[in-house]
Amino acid sequence: MEPRINLMANEVGAKVGKRIYNVSLAIRESSLPRALQELVELRASQINGCGWCVDVHTKEAALAGETPVRLNLVAAWRESTVFTEAERAALALTEEGTRLADAHQGVSDETWAQVRKHFDDDRIAALVSLVAMINAANRLGVITRMQGGSYDPGMFAGLSD
């Protein structure tokens, strides 16, 4: 399966990509721990089947200090003992916020209560924004068939405006 288009080589695609990257920078600069951000992005990317994003967030999570065991178990976090209650709340929010069409209810009150228990308003705002942005990025990657395997950590560092 070949990529359909290189959005970053297209004028409009590059403009959109830069804006998405700048929103992501605002989230990165929040107090939400970087390793947790990567786990959230990895889990949503797994659900959405975005090979490029799985590649990016696996590598970035490793750089942020995630262990191979935790990276390997993120897809089965409910059946794993290596995630904290706060991480479980964030991963549940990620799954429910990613599977909107499947869940019909959106994010459950139970999941929201767990998120409120473990995160302050600033971290919740970052977490909700992160779930929305990674889902947008996943759709760009899946629609255009971006392939995983070639990402080098930090390769977009000079992309911001």
From TrEMBL:
This is Carboxymuconolactone decarboxylase family protein. Residues 23-96 form the Carboxymuconolactone decarboxylase-like domain. InterPro entries: AhpD-like, AhpD_core, CMD-like. It comes from Streptomyces griseicoloratus. SUPFAM superfamilies: AhpD-like. The lineage of its organism: Bacteria, Bacillati, Actinomycetota, Actinomycetes, Kitasatosporales. GO terms for molecular function: peroxiredoxin activity.
